[in-house]
Design goal:
The complex is a heterodimer of chains A (280) and B (357). Chain A is an all-alpha fold. Chain A has twelve helices and no strands. Chain A has a single domain, classed as MetI-like fold (Orthogonal Bundle), CATH 1.10.3720. Chain B has 357 residues and is α/β, with parallel strands linked by helices. Chain B has two domains: 216 residues, Rossmann fold, CATH 3.40.50.300; 69 residues, CBS-domain. In chain B, a hairpin with a 2-residue loop joins β9 and β10. The chains are: A mainly alpha (280), B alpha/beta (357). Chains A and B meet through α9 and α10 of A and α4, β6 and α6 of B.
C-alpha cells in the first residue's frame, strides 16, 4: 500500500518537474502578466495619500449603502493607516482586486457556457466541488513550484479558490431564465444572440453579481493565507508576527483584514441591491 | 369567413412520450385513434387530429379545461412546439417546413402572441417592453418608441410609458403585453389565456376592449380560454376541446343550443341564454304557428327582428302583457315566439312541436 502512495506522490512530483522543465516559458509569462497587473493596481492604490483612498471608499460606501456606512468605511481605512499598516492594507487590496479580476475573466464566460451546456456543467461540478473542499493551502505548493516565491504564486492560488463560486452562480443565473420569457423571445422571433443578450443575461445579472461578491470574499480569505508564500500585504504581516510571536502586531493586522472584509462585502452587496431595486 | 383561412391546421397531432416516434408512425400508417395511441404506446396525446381554420378578422376561441391540450395547440400555430403530424398553414405556406430564418420573420411580423403569465421584462420601462418585438426586428429606437407609444395609447396606457412593470396592476400589465403584440402589427394574434389571472371585473373590461380593438384593427385572433363566458363574449366561433381533440366547433349560439355530446352539454348547462340566444332560434315558423293557432293574427303582434336577444323578448312580453311576439326578417314576418318557446329557449332547448300559448 505504502509503495502505491509513494508512487502516486512520485508521479505528481515528476509531473510538476516536467511542467517546470517544458512549460517554464509559459509560467514565466504567466508570472509576468499577473505581477504586472498587480503592480499596476498596487501603485494606483498606494500612490495617493491614504486619506484620498479613504474618502473615495467613503463616498462609494455612501452611494452603495448609506451615509453612515460611508463614514465608517472612511474611518476604518484611516484607522488602518493609523496602525501603520497602510501599505500592507493596500497591497492586500491590490492582490484581491487582481485575483478577482482574473478569476472573473475565467469564471463568468465559463459559467455562461456551462449554463447553456448541461453536460459541461455536470462535468465541471465535481471539479468545482474538489477545488472548494480541498484545504486552500494545497494550492500554494504547486503554485510555488511553478511560479516561485512572490505575489504571482499568491495570485494563482487565490484565482483557483475564487473561481468556483463565481462560476457556479453565473451558470445558475443563466440556467434559471423563466420559461415564459424564453417563449416570449421565441414568439417575437429573437435570434439566439438576441435571446442571450436581451433575455437570459438581464435575468442572470443578480446571480452573477452575487458571484462577484462571493469571488471577492474568497479572494480576500485566500490572499491572507498566501502570506506564507511571500504575497506581501497583511497576510505577510500576520505570518511574520506568528513566526516572531508578536501577538499585538498580528491582532492589528487581523483588525485591518476585518475592516477590509466588511467594506468590500457591504459595498458590493449594496451596489447589487441598488441594481436590483432599479430593475425590480 | 371560413372559405379562406388565414392560418389553419390540418389534422395535426402532438404526441409526447418515450415511444412517440412509433406512435406517430402508427397513426400515419394504420390511422389509429387517440385511445389506441395512449393504450398501445403509453404516450400522452397533447393534440389529436385537430383541424381548425382562422378566418380574416375572426376571433376564434378555443375553450377547454386544463389538460385539454389547448395551450399545446396554440403553440403549434407559431411553432413554439413542433407538430408530430399534420400541417400548419399560414396563407397556404407550411409553417412546419419553414427555415428558421423565415420562421423568425413570421413570428416577428405576422403572428404575435400574448401570454397568460405576465412576461414583461422587469428591468425595462413599459415603453421599452412594448417596443421589444420591434427591437428584435432591429427597428431604430426613435421609430420603435413612436410605434410602441401609439400601441400603448390604443390600450389606454399613454400616460405610463416611463413606468416600470412592477408599478402597474395586473390588468395594466396584460395591456402592455397586448400593446407589445399589436406594435409589430401582426395579422394574427395568439392569445394564450391572457386574462385568466385577472379579477372578474377587470377581466370583463379587458375582454370588451380586446374585442373592440381587434375588430377595429381587423386582426384575427386565436384566443385560448378555460372560461366559457369569456369564449362566448369574445368568440365569433368557439372550438370546445377535450383530451386533445376538438369536440365541437361553432358559434356560441350553436354550442349552447345544440351541444354535440354530454360533455359540451354539461359545460353549457350553467350559461345564461338571455344575451346569447336570438329570436330566430326560439321562434315557431310562421306557417306552423298559423296552422296550430288560427285564432291569432301574427300581424297584430308586436314585432322584433330575428337577431333580437331573449332578454329583449322577455322585456317586451312582461311589459306589454303579451303572450306571443312576431319575428320579422327585413320587415317580413317569418315566425312567432310564444311564452312557452321562450321559456324553453331560456333553458337552452329549441322549440318543441307543440305550439301553445
Amino acid at each position: 500500500m505504502e509503495s502505491l502512495t509513494d508512487r502516486i506522490d512520485e508521479t505528481i512530483s515528476d509531473g510538476l518537474d516536467w511542467l517546470n522543465d517544458n512549460w517554464s516559458g509559459f509560467f514565466d509569462a504567466l508570472r509576468l502578466v499577473m505581477e504586472g497587473l498587480y503592480n499596476g493596481i498596487e501603485a494606483g492604490l498606494t500612490f495617493p495619500p491614504f486619506f484620498v483612498i479613504a474618502i473615495a471608499a467613503g463616498l462609494l460606501g455612501w452611494w452603495a449603502v448609506r451615509l453612515r456606512f460611508g463614514i465608517l468605511s472612511a474611518l476604518g481605512l484611516a484607522f488602518c493607516a493609523l496602525m501603520g499598516l497602510w501599505p500592507e492594507t493596500m497591497q492586500t487590496l491590490a492582490l484581491v482586486f487582481t485575483a478577482t479580476t482574473i478569476a472573473l475573466l475565467i469564471a463568468v464566460p465559463l459559467g455562461i457556457i456551462a449554463g447553456f451546456r448541461p453536460r459541461l456543467h455536470a462535468a465541471l461540478l465535481p471539479v468545482l466541488d474538489m477545488v472548494q473542499t480541498l484545504p486552500p493551502y494545497i494550492y500554494l505548493l504547486p503554485a510555488i513550484a511553478l511560479l516561485g516565491f512572490g505575489p504571482a504564486t499568491a495570485l494563482a492560488a487565490t484565482v483557483v479558490v475564487a473561481i468556483p463560486p463565481a462560476l457556479r452562480l453565473t451558470a445558475h443565473g443563466i440556467r434559471l431564465t423563466p420559461v415564459n420569457f424564453l417563449e416570449l423571445g421565441q414568439a417575437t422571433g429573437s435570434s439566439g444572440m438576441q435571446m442571450f443578450l436581451k433575455i437570459r443575461l438581464p435575468f442572470a445579472v443578480p446571480s452573477i453579481m452575487a458571484g462577484v461578491n462571493q469571488c471577492l470574499m474568497m479572494a480576500l480569505g485566500m490572499v491572507v493565507i498566501a502570506g506564507i508564500v511571500g504575497s506581501g500585504g497583511l497576510g505577510a504581516t500576520i505570518y511574520d508576527s506568528v513566526r516572531t510571536l508578536s501577538i499585538g502586531k498580528s491582532i492589528d493586522a487581523g483588525i485591518a483584514i476585518v475592516i477590509l472584509t466588511m467594506i468590500l462585502d457591504r459595498t458590493t452587496e449594496g451596489a447589487i441591491g441598488r441594481e436590483r431595486k432599479a430593475a425590480a | 369567413m371560413e372559405n379562406e383561412p388565414l392560418i389553419e391546421c390540418k389534422s395535426v397531432w402532438k404526441i409526447f412520450g418515450d415511444r412517440s416516434d412509433a406512435a406517430i408512425r402508427a397513426v400515419k400508417e394504420r390511422g389509429i385513434g387517440k385511445a389506441e395511441v395512449m393504450q398501445e404506446f403509453n404516450c400522452v396525446v397533447g393534440v389529436a387530429d385537430v383541424s381548425l381554420g382562422l378566418g380574416k378578422g375572426e376571433i376564434l376561441c378555443v375553450m377547454g379545461l386544463s389538460g385539454s391540450g389547448k395551450s399545446t395547440l396554440i403553440r403549434l400555430f407559431n411553432r413554439l412546439i413542433e407538430p408530430s403530424l399534420g400541417q400548419m398553414l399560414l396563407h397556404g405556406e407550411d409553417i412546419g417546413s419553414m427555415s428558421l430564418e423565415r420562421l423568425r420573420e413570421v413570428r416577428a411580423k405576422k403572428v404575435g402572441m400574448v401570454f397568460q403569465s405576465v412576461t414583461l421584462l422587469p428591468h425595462r420601462t413599459v415603453l421599452e417592453n412594448a417596443a421589444f418585438g420591434l427591437e428584435v426586428q432591429k427597428i431604430d429606437k426613435a421609430r420603435r418608441h413612436e410605434i410602441a407609444g401609439a400601441a400603448l395609447a390604443k390600450v389606454g396606457l399613454g400616460d405610463w410609458l416611463n413606468r416600470y412593470p412592477h408599478e402597474l396592476s395586473g390588468g395594466m400589465q396584460q395591456r402592455v403585453g397586448l400593446a407589445r403584440a399589436l406594435a409589430s402589427d401582426p395579422e394574427i394574434i395568439l392569445m394564450d389565456e391572457p386574462f385568466s389571472a385577472l379579477d372578474p371585473l377587470i377581466r370583463r373590461q379587458l375582454q370588451n376592449e380586446f374585442r373592440q380593438l381587434s375588430k377595429e384593427l381587423g386582426k384575427s385572433a386565436l384566443f385560448i380560454t378555460h372560461d366559457l363566458d369569456e369564449a362566448i363574449r369574445l368568440g365569433d366561433r368557439i372550438a370546445v376541446m377535450k383530451d386533445g381533440a376538438v369536440v365541437q366547433l361553432g358559434t356560441a349560439e350553436d354550442i349552447v343550443l345544440r351541444p354535440k355530446d354530454a360533455y359540451v352539454e354539461d359545460f353549457v348547462a350553467g350559461v345564461s341564454r338571455l344575451h346569447l340566444v336570438k329570436a330566430h332560434s326560439v321562434m315557431h315558423h310562421v306557417g306552423d304557428f298559423q296552422s296550430r293557432q288560427p285564432g291569432v293574427n301574427p300581424a297584430t303582434l308586436p314585432a322584433v327582428p330575428v337577431d333580437a336577444e331573449l332578454d329583449t323578448l322577455i322585456q317586451l312580453m312582461t311589459k306589454g302583457h303579451q303572450d306571443s311576439v312576431a319575428v320579422t326578417d327585413a320587415g317580413k314576418l317569418v315566425g312567432v315566439v310564444t311564452l312557452r318557446s321562450l321559456l324553453q329557449g331560456v333553458r337552452g332547448r329549441e322549440p318543441t312541436e307543440e305550439i301553445a300559448l
